[in-house]
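debug: dumping io for the single-chain case to check the tokenizer round-trip. Nothing else runs in this session.
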Amino acid sequence: MKWIDAGPADSLPEGGAVCVAAGRRMLAVVRSDGCFYAIEDVCTHDGAELTGGAVEGAEIICPRHGARFCLRTGRALTPPAYEAVSVFETKLEGGHVWVRAG
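debug: decoded output
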């Protein structure tokens, strides 16, 4: 797996999310409570992008139907989603957020 530069850490505000391409996958990179998370940017309920959803603690809420996903584990926390999304390791280096994705 390789590391992908998701951009400058200071450009992602607290509670914000950006979409980053990782090959054929799109990832949501999220900043919450001072931590950076990366998950697959797709709701497992209907394929909506998660980056447009609200972030509350370590959860992101699908903007279309309100399903919640854990940013740490990818687990679907509420209906209508029941399947987890993939999660990816993040690190800060040189003032940038890096995501480990293949």
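debug: round-trip ok. The mean pLDDT is 96.
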